[in-house]
Amino acid sequence: MLTSTFVIIGCGFEGGASGKRGHGPGSSMVVRHVEDAKQFQNLLSQTEQLVVVMYSAEWCSNCRMIRPHFYNLSEQLTNIVFVEVDVDDAEPLARSAGITCMPTFHFFRRSARMGEFSGTKREKLERLLDELQ
């Protein structure tokens, strides 16, 4: 029997606060969580605003560093839809998106990918959000 292994590595490093998804400072009900391709496609096709997707995992230290900032941005930039995809909960979706390291951010408008970057550079995330709004 053939089995496949989905390996994802952490990308980039920049100092910052740590936090867990949905807990403590930086947690927010504004960030949507998507677990499958159908839910993901429905969200993209029904949303006119810019959508930013963070592919992450609980065990990823770089993801824990940028997550509080991502959640804070979701509360500040209410004209943008923020989505988090846990690669362990949504492995087929992450694989089809070509995710090879985390955190990776994809930016969509009307289902079309407008940009992407991997890493924890807050300034780059903010700049891309500003440019693509």
Automatic annotation (TrEMBL):
Residues 23-133 form the Thioredoxin domain. Gene3D superfamilies: Glutaredoxin. It comes from the Eukaryota. It comes from Chiloscyllium punctatum. The lineage of its organism: Eukaryota, Metazoa, Chordata, Craniata, Vertebrata. Transmembrane segments: none annotated. Keywords: Disulfide bond, Redox-active center. This is Thioredoxin domain-containing protein.
